[in-house]
Amino acid sequence: MGKRIYNFNAGPAALPLSVLEEIQAELLDFKGSGMSVLEVSHRSKWFDDVINEAVERTERLLGLGDDFHVLFIQGGASLQFCMIPMNLALEGRPVDYINTGTWSTKAIKEAEVQGKDVRVIASSEDKGFSYIPKEFTIDRDASYLHFTSNNTIKGTQWAQFPDAAGIPLVCDMSSDIMSRPFDVAPFGLIYAGAQKNIGPSGSAMVIIRKDMLERTPDNLPAMMKYTTFSGKNSMFNTPACVVIYTINLVLKWLEETIGGLEKMEQINQEKGSILYDFIDQSGFYQGTAVKDSRSLMNLTFRLPNEDLEKKFVAEALEEGFGGLKGHRSVGGCRASIYNATGIDAVKALVGFMSEFERKEG
Ligand SMILES: *Cc1c(COP(=O)(O)O)cnc(C)c1O
């Protein structure tokens, strides 16, 4: 086997090594089926067990009651930008959004293009999306309030979710789902593209409160309706079988190896402190997000100039640290340290950064 790098990619991103090994071990004969999981029918008992287990693990990890459905829908988080207003906007009532960056902006556009009455009740665009807005007024007549819990590109994260005063919260948790425990009660819908924190690309996880399903209009195409997926255990058509299978293994790792979301949160906080404390004491690296809005998943920073940033990313890769280039829309550097990136990787990165500073600072 070739040498594995420390993977700081933003998405698709690192998976736990033990999960990859488990996939490898059972690749040719999945659960005694005599077939690979890539080959089994989604209508088989083998796959039924996989999807049901993935749903049950999600319910246990997030403490979901009977009032939620866990769905897997292809098309990534981006299709959810479109399905949410299509299904959940109530007649004659606006849809409210908080804009904290690129992904929120895209979600807003998809509601606007459908002619919905979109209100952006708060935005951090005035300061380049470097912070999470704190002051805003919730509209009690809104169909829902949409926000992005972690802003993958700008490196900001909601430390505490907005209080929507009874209006269903709808949240894009693509880049921090399963990174910490939270109270699901105020949420009407939570969604996440799998490829950041829970699996490979090819499916979104959608957690929808059952009463929200009553909003789905009859006159939508089948594949655009949440009710189509909830009525068929996400198997109206062929689902992303291998993605769901991998998600199940990642969730098993979270439950059995890590020990649940409280433990995961502690580990994520420790990783974040190691890296942010290092950046803060350095005069060379500069964090880009406002301190109280910093993300524990995507740590964005700059070096004194762009030439040094290029050199940093290139030398890092040579030393076995991948994915440190910032998103192409903002430049700079970014270390994505999702659940599967261990404390060892973060400590090794700090070692490299410190050495680079000593040489170039
Ligand atoms: C990556 C990302 C998306 C886009 O996900 P796709 O699955 O590629 O559509 C949306 N929102 C957030 C917060 C993301 O990080």
From TrEMBL:
Record's keyword annotation contains Amino-acid biosynthesis: yes
Cofactor: pyridoxal 5'-phosphate
Chief location of this protein within or outside the cell: cytoplasm
Biological process (GO), any one: L-serine biosynthetic process
Domain Aminotransferase class V: 5-349
Single GO term (MF): O-phospho-L-serine:2-oxoglutarate aminotransferase activity
Lineage: superkingdom: Bacteria
Reaction catalysis annotation: O-phospho-L-serine + 2-oxoglutarate = 3-phosphooxypyruvate + L-glutamate; 4-(phosphooxy)-L-threonine + 2-oxoglutarate = (R)-3-hydroxy-2-oxo-4-phosphooxybutanoate + L-glutamate
Organism this protein belongs to: Candidatus Desulfacyla euxinica
Complex and partners: Homodimer.
Keyword annotations of the record: Amino-acid biosynthesis, Aminotransferase, Cytoplasm, Pyridoxal phosphate, Pyridoxine biosynthesis, Serine biosynthesis, Transferase
Catalytic class of the enzyme: transferase
Modified residues (N6-(pyridoxal phosphate)lysine): 196
Note accompanying the cofactor annotation: Binds 1 pyridoxal phosphate per subunit.
UniProt name for this protein: Phosphoserine aminotransferase
Family stated for the protein in its record: Belongs to the class-V pyridoxal-phosphate-dependent aminotransferase family. SerC subfamily.
InterPro entries membership: Aminotrans_V_dom (IPR000192), Aminotrans_V_PyrdxlP_BS (IPR020578), Pser_aminoTfrase (IPR022278), PyrdxlP-dep_Trfase (IPR015424), PyrdxlP-dep_Trfase_major (IPR015421), PyrdxlP-dep_Trfase_small (IPR015422)
Ligand binding (pyridoxal 5'-phosphate): 77-78, 103, 152, 172, 195, 237-238
